[in-house]
Design goal:
Layout (H helix, E strand, L loop, with lengths): L10 H7 L7 H14 L4 E7 L6 E6 L6 H7 L19 H7 L4 E7 L7 E6 H7 L5 E2 L4 H7 L7 E7 L13 H21 L1 H5 L7 E4 L2 E2 L14 E2 L3 E7 L2 E11 L9 H7 L4 H5 L1 E6 L2 E5 L15 E7 L4 H4 L12 H34 L11 H17 L3 H14 L1 H7 L3
Parallel strand pairs: 1-7, 12-14
Antiparallel strand pairs: 1-2, 2-6, 3-4, 3-6, 4-5, 7-8, 9-11, 10-11, 11-14, 12-13
Helix pairs in contact: 1-5, 2-4, 2-7, 13-14, 13-15, 14-15
This protein binds adenosine-5'-triphosphate (ATP) and magnesium ion.
């Protein structure tokens, strides 16, 4: 029997390395929203406060809350607990890793019921750096914890506070106007992200309807499939049985063909449907784990994104039983499709994309017509020459009216979102 040596990780080193496991600001907040949802909350309130160096963010919920032992365990890197089927948590890490990817001090204030006093804990990276130990501070009596506790609106609930926002504030002049704009700019980006990632919870499709607000803005669900647009088409649903080790479960593929611009109920609805990354990059698979969106945009290696298939979107649903098969990452923002599934999905996805391509070809001459209305003499549709002539006419008009820079911006957008059209117009 070899000698056993216990080699504990260095808290100083590891807490620092864990800051960079791939969270963006929005995905870090989403991981905390997962915790609130898992705790049974139906009201989640997020506030971002700019106060220069003292800026902070709070996420308050009316979930089950935590008592003493529970909150101590929650602060452990690798919390020990059992998970039910469908639980959004998995690794016992998110609260710590997501928070500390954005800030140096995480505080959690929680109340298990109306009569109990709130309990509060903090993990402070500066403190851990100094003592090189996995220390959680009991801050239950501190004034800032008592102030945060007032954000718990229900009988029970929790508030997570991020302070020392070193990854969100510029290191230079965190009190200045640039820092303010940066912090204030986080709100709209976060709204778009959460409206998409939690759309089934916001609409009530996933069970209890959940409300989420960001800086007092109540989020509306963003449905990638525009199911309330009459002209959106739903194709047949496919179900696949996936086996992984001892586990087997069904995953569901639903395919949607979004209408061309002119068939949307309004211009706003069309623009809204384009999504945070816009039409081209929002095409593809939307992969849901227990109803929470974990990956979107692109075809997960089945095919590449293409201007012609930008109206094709599909949802793929899997349950937490298949977490290992899908290789979900800690930040819950990436999966790998099991090889057998990728093979089975190739045909239905290609079918969807062929339909999208056909619809694109039917509707794209109309785009060319709209643009060609500007010149006095209409160009013949189709053919490379007409596109090049329109491109030239636009360039000339832009130069003559002093709008060349604006045209440059427009053509760069067309290049990135509609490369085919850019080629056609000679903008490439
Ligand atoms: N808002 C909350 N309300 C109640 N309990 C919470 C809340 N946030 C965290 N917890 C508790 O703290 C534990 C640790 O959370 P953490 O996010 O670190 O891990 P997890 O959710 O279990 O797994 P994952 O790493 O996959 O997110 C949770 O399992 C839960 O018991
Ligand atoms: Mg979690």
């Amino acid at each position: 029997m070899p000698n056993r040596l216990s080699v504990a990780p260095s808290a100083r080193r590891l807490t620092n390395s864990l800051r960079d496991i791939g969270y963006s600001f929005e995905s870090a907040v989403a991981d905390l929203v997962d915790n609130s949802v898992a705790a049974g909350a139906d009201q989640i309130t997020i506030e971002i406060h700019f106060e220069g160096r003292g800026s902070y963010l709070t996420i308050a919920d009316n979930g089950a809350g935590m008592h003493d032992d529970h909150i101590n365990e929650a602060m452990r890197f690798g919390s020990r607990r059992e998970y039910d089927d469908g639980d959004l948590g998995r690794y016992g890490l998110g609260l710590k890793t997501a928070s500390l990817s954005q800030c140096r001090r995480l505080e959690v204030v929680s109340r298990g019921n109306r009569l109990s006093s709130p309990v509060a804990r903090a993990i402070d990276l500066d403190f851990i750096q100094a003592v090189d130990d996995w220390v959680t501070l009991d801050i239950s009596e501190e004034p800032e914890a008592l102030a945060a506790a007032s954000l718990i609106k229900g009988n029970s609930g929790s508030v997570v506070v991020w302070r020392k926002l070193d990854r969100l504030l510029p290191a230079k002049s965190p009190e200045g106007g640039w820092a303010r704009r940066r912090i204030e700019g986080l709100g709209p980006k976060l709204e778009a992200h959460l409206s998409m990632v939690f759309h089934r919870f916001l609409s009530g499709e996933a069970g209890t309807k959940i409300s989420i607000s960001v800086n007092d803005v109540d989020l509306e669900p963003w449905d990638p499939f525009c199911r309330d647009e009459a002209a959106a088409e739903t194709l047949d649903v496919d179900e696949f049985e996936i086996e992984h080790g001892e586990v087997s479960d069904t995953v569901t593929l639903r395919r949607y063909l979004l209408p061309p611009r002119e068939d949307f109920s309004s211009r706003e609805a069309f623009e809204q449907a384009s999504g945070p990354e816009k039409w081209n990059r929002q095409q593809g698979l939307y992969i849901y784990r227990a109803n929470r969106l974990v990956q979107w945009g692109g075809w997960a290696g089945i095919r590449t994104i293409d201007e012609h298939t930008k109206s094709a979107r599909a949802s793929l649903d899997f349950g937490t039983k298949l977490d290992e098969a899908f290789n979900i990452n800690v930040a819950k923002m990436r999966v790998n499709l099991p090889g057998q599934l990728r093979k089975m999905m190739t045909r239905p996805i290609n079918e969807l994309c062929i339909a999208a391509d056909a619809a694109y070809r039917r509707s794209s001459p109309r785009i060319v017509t709209e643009i060609s209305e500007a010149p006095k003499k209409p160009f013949a549709l189709g053919g490379d020459e007409s596109g090049a002539a329109i491109g030239l006419a636009l360039r000339t008009a832009a130069a003559r009216t002093g709008n060349f820079e604006a045209l440059e911006a427009i053509s760069s957008l067309i290049r990135s979102e509609m490369p085919e059209l850019a080629r056609h117009l000679g903008f490439d």
